[in-house]
């Protein structure tokens, strides 16, 4: 049984069948549609560059053809570990021999005055993306984005591209402070400013104001910013309430070991909801990235089938904003590194950033430079010390580092 019909859940079902499992597979999804991928929702779909239906993980007929019982629009509401049973919102329940929790995450909403006004939204689902596109695609609006994280910045880029006025409020000193730190975060601030976005750092949200629908944002510094539309891009919280209520160990997500197993030997977790022990970083990490759902879903499926699995992928993320395409590998939150060095001039838009900890590369980001993920991830995985002069010298092949 798989709870959560997102990318991790769908890929787990696919792997179970690909590995020859011929028993019953039930895939429970709260949304009223089959599993889909979310990255295009803040990029190509929001920009109208990709067909709205191109996001689905499988063709509509795939589930029946592979004998996967996909139950759309049904929520798992109770988990009884002793009885091995999951109670569903339609009043039925399903017994399992192995259970995968793949419930993803849900956008955080700041509880400030006016948070429920019309025109204040978050972006997680396909429906959210289509509704946002319908509003911003005509241009001419004043769009305020709370949070300079990945989703906030991608929406800022789309809203600007459509010709809206865009302001981003970011409480930290730079956008993307938590995933990238201030050095590279500042480059993203520059990128957006160069496209006419007002990036206000060190300034959070105090309140939203308006009669029925939002018309102003009051910032933590007391500034009033006119806004026809507000997007809250302040992170997501793991959907782990089902697991918590059942008594599974949870700490910023469902805790699993490196085989993606919870403290109940028949229950596994993968994707955004899981905080998995990472052998490379020797700590639990909750990775909220597409590639993690894509790879951890299948890894969990193999683990459920009794195979010997160690899930130790280097975290990987990608983003597209305006004409910048980038990929990021590793883990580089402030405190996890001591220095950032660059190969190539960031001002040129084509560069690789390396985050170093005691001389070893712990993370790397390639901006508008492609097909380098494998050597960068090998370097991160090796943990070896590298001379800075070699990292920054474009003449030294990445594979030789
Ligand atoms: C707008 C957007 C853009 C993104 N862009 C990028 C990007 O550029 N690069 C990148 O690497 N990552 C990106 N991500 C992150 C990536 O999409 C996620 O990491 C990925 O979707 C996680 O997949 P998942 O299957 O774990 O969870 P989800 O996709 O969240 O799927 C979980 C599903 O389970 C359902 N569910 C929850 N609880 C229950 C329950 N009790 N019963 C039944 N169903 C339940 C949820 O409704 C949901 O449909 C983006 C995310 C968003 C929202």
Automatic annotation (TrEMBL):
Ranges for domain Reductase C-terminal: 316-401
GO cellular component: cytoplasm
Annotated ranges, domain FAD/NAD(P)-binding: 1-297
Pfam families reported for this sequence: Pyr_redox_2, Reductase_C
SUPFAM superfamilies: FAD/NAD(P)-binding domain, FAD/NAD-linked reductases, dimerisation (C-terminal) domain
InterPro entries named among the record's database cross-references: FAD-oxidoreductase/Apoptosis (IPR050446), FAD/NAD-bd_sf (IPR036188), FAD/NAD-binding_dom (IPR023753), FAD/NAD-linked_Rdtase_dimer_sf (IPR016156), Reductase_C (IPR028202)
Keywords: Dioxygenase, FAD, Flavoprotein, Oxidoreductase
A GO term for molecular function: dioxygenase activity
Source superkingdom: Bacteria
Signal sequence extent: none
Known cofactor(s): FAD
PANTHER family: APOPTOSIS-INDUCING FACTOR 1 (PTHR43557), RIESKE DOMAIN-CONTAINING PROTEIN-RELATED (PTHR43557:SF2)
The protein's name: 3-phenylpropionate/trans-cinnamate dioxygenase ferredoxin reductase subunit
Organism of origin: Actinocorallia herbida
